[in-house]
Amino acid sequence: MTAARIVVVTGTDTGVGKTIATAALAARARGIGERVLVVKPVQTGIGGADPDPHDVDTVAALTGADVIELAALDEALAPDTAARRAGATLPTVAEHAARVRDLATTGQHDLVLVEGAGGLLVRLDLDDGTLLDLAVALGADVVVVARAGLGTLNHTELTVAALRARGVEPAGVVIGAWPCSPGLAERCNRDDLPRVTGLPVLAVVPDGAGSLLPDAFVEAAVGWFG
């Protein structure tokens, strides 16, 4: 049985459009007939008076892809911080890797997308294991989701440098929320990101794309990729 290809999706920071970029990657793959599973190792922020939506629910609603969430915590904090404050346990990165490998070898999917939490070095467990550690353990391809605006060159270069320092060559960059009226910084960054990172810009996702109806999202997603 052939294992599904595994792609880890990381952001240069929180709030860069990683979930919608993950949905776009899923939509594109489903558009060429691939069976897609999206895995969220740890979701935070689901409790309180104004809980965040589960990222996997957003992806499923937009794309129809299969999804699974492995752990969830109430407070909108880094996973290890939220777990410590709640007195909760978390699976280790090694346990996450084993679960993802198992999911990739069921024969039910061609592509497994693993969406991180925040940036590359955010701790996913209580033993200082990071998304970078998970990507290395899985031997996965990595897609970096970046902001469009000022500061993104530095944040993206730092993320790419951290990956390369561990022997991981990223597949490329996705700009997670391209404004409808881009300014000078955004326009320059779109040109400069490939130059400073040595990576292709795989896709440019419009700001607000997550509000599209599912059929419109899936249809539009194909055009966001170069």
TrEMBL record:
Classify the source by domain of life.
Answer: Bacteria
Names of the cofactor(s): Mg(2+)
Task: List ligand-binding residues for ATP.
Answer: G15, V16, G17, K18, T19, I20, D55, E115, G116, A117, G118, P206, D207, G208
Q: In which pathway does it act?
A: Cofactor biosynthesis; biotin biosynthesis; biotin from 7,8-diaminononanoate: step 1/2
| Substrates-to-products reaction catalysed | (7R,8S)-7,8-diammoniononanoate + CO2 + ATP = (4R,5S)-dethiobiotin + ADP + phosphate + 3 H(+)
**Ubl conjugation: present as a keyword of the record?**
no
- The EC number of this protein is 6.3.3.3
Annotated substrate binding lies at T44
Coiled-coil stretches, from where to where? none
Q: Name one GO biological process term.
A: biotin biosynthetic process
What Pfam family is a match for this entry? AAA_26
Residues that bind Mg(2+): T19, D55, E115
> Where does this polypeptide localize?
Cytoplasm
Any one cellular-component term (Gene Ontology)? cytosol
* Chief subcellular location: cytoplasm
Q: Keywords on this record?
A: ATP-binding, Biotin biosynthesis, Cytoplasm, Ligase, Magnesium, Metal-binding, Nucleotide-binding
For this protein, the record's SUPFAM superfamilies field holds: P-loop containing nucleoside triphosphate hydrolases (SSF52540)
> What are this entry's molecular-function GO terms?
ATP binding; dethiobiotin synthase activity; magnesium ion binding
In terms of InterPro entries, this protein maps to: DTB_synth_BioD, P-loop_NTPase
Assembly notes: Homodimer.
The family line of this record is: Belongs to the dethiobiotin synthetase family.
Main function: Catalyzes a mechanistically unusual reaction, the ATP-dependent insertion of CO2 between the N7 and N8 nitrogen atoms of 7,8-diaminopelargonic acid (DAPA, also called 7,8-diammoniononanoate) to form a ureido ring.
Q: Which named protein is this? A: ATP-dependent dethiobiotin synthetase BioD
Q: Which organism is it from?
A: Nocardioides simplex
Gene name, Swiss-Prot/TrEMBL: bioD
